[in-house]
Design brief:
It is a single chain. 63% of the residues lie in helices and 0% in strands. Helix 1 (11-33) crosses helix 4. The chain is globular and about 40 Å long. By secondary structure, the protein is mainly α.
């Protein structure tokens, strides 16, 4: 059963939000950690956070890049 939060957004709109948050987060991460963007993208794409981001029922796509990074960093730290 899909969660219904009254969102009038289509799946493609949710995907666009997820991609935008991911890109902004990875650009900041790459610059701060001096990690090439492609390397950061592959690292993120292998994470549970990535899968959660594109499971639209979780609504992680609706959060900003800072929140997304926090979720990913907690996962990386083993929390």
């Amino acid at each position: 059963m899909k969660a219904n939060f009254g969102d009038p957004l289509t799946e493609s709109q949710m995907e666009a939000c997820a991609v935008m948050a991911m890109r902004m987060m990875l650009e900041d991460f790459s610059a701060e950690k001096e990690c090439p963007f492609p390397e950061a993208l592959v690292r993120f794409a292998e994470s549970r956070t990535y899968r959660t981001l594109f499971d639209y029922d979780t609504r992680l796509w609706a959060e900003g890049p800072d929140y997304l990074r926090g979720v990913w960093m907690r996962e990386e730290a083993g929390a």
